[in-house]
Specification:
rod-shaped, SH3 type barrels, five-stranded antiparallel beta sheet, 2 helices, 2 domains
Length: 167
């Protein structure tokens, strides 16, 4: 009950302040009329509904970060040691050569610094990629990502062998 009385006094104060701010001379009748209207309003049982609204007593801006709600379709990364080809994403590599024999299929790639790596089917590349196919002029890498909701996103990446004169 004490809180409701404080709110009533606050409403009366705000209304009177608004009249004064208008820089007009307020007659006693106008003051009494405003006060009586506010008293009628304050006698009604008014309750603030918080549903779908922000808390009016919280600051709009604060120095501490607000906890963020996780996005359901956000891709989550499982931390694994990143060494060798696992530290390189397929877009950072370029296909230099392929070697196909009856028993084995190999591909040679290099990074931007010129360091070479040998790929075979099943080898892991980057955070989520696996070499699925090696043909005479391309390598196919399959990336499988998981979202927070458990949905799998599959992305196929093709690395093509550049022929002489291609850029």
């Amino acid at each position: 009950m004490k809180d409701k009385n404080i709110i009533k006094v606050g409403v009366v104060f705000l209304a009177l302040s608004a009249l004064v701010i208008r820089s007009e001379i307020v007659s006693a009748e106008e003051l009494l009329e405003t006060t009586s209207i506010l008293e009628k309003l304050s006698h009604d049982n008014f309750e603030y509904q918080m549903e779908g609204r922000s808390d009016p007593f919280q600051p709009l801006f604060s120095s501490k970060p607000q906890p963020q709600v996780p996005v359901v379709d956000e891709i989550i990364d499982v931390e694994k040691p990143k060494t060798g080809l696992r530290s390189m994403e397929p877009g950072q590599l370029s296909l230099v050569a392929t070697l196909i024999s009856d028993s084995n299929r190999l591909a040679m790639v290099q990074d931007v610094t010129g360091v070479g790596y040998v790929l075979n089917q099943g080898i892991k590349v980057g955070l989520r990629g696996v070499v699925t196919m090696i043909s005479k002029d391309q390598v196919l890498i399959k990336e499988i990502s998981k979202t927070r909701s458990g949905k799998e996103i599959i992305k196929m990446i093709t690395m093509r062998l550049k022929k002489e004169g291609d850029k």
